[in-house]
Amino acid sequence: MSKDSCDGCGRTVTVSGGIANLWSFGRDAGTVGTAITLELEDGTSHLLCYPCLEAIPDYPTAEDVERLEQVDGESSTLGTR
Q1: Per-residue pLDDT of the chain (81 residues; tens, 9 = 90+)
Q2: Which of 5, 23, 31, 68 is the most buried (most CB within 10 A)?
Q3: Per the record, a Pfam family (predicted)?
Q4: Three-class SS string for the chain?
Q5: Residue 6: domain span
């Protein structure tokens, strides 16, 4: 698994799949990441951790992603920027 930063809150995340999971032989099968890339309707894509995914609205915009903030190690929220 590779490591990267969440585009919303900046916490370190792991991305499942890729060469690191090549030899898992079905065990976890690329499902152990802590982030997912979300493609928005405006054509932008953002790597977001699961707490940030929970915090953004149903039809997010790039501005919603920019407003995300880390509250603690386990949750995120939309800021008032």
Answers
A1: 567 899 999 988 887 655 555 555 545 444 456 888 899 999 999 999 989 999 999 999 999 999 998 777 778 888 765
A2: 68
A3: DUF7561
A4: CEEEECCCCCCEEEECCCHHHCCCCCCCCCCCCCEEEEECCCCCEEEEEHHHHHHCCCCCCHHHHHCEEECCCCCEEECCC
A5: 2-78
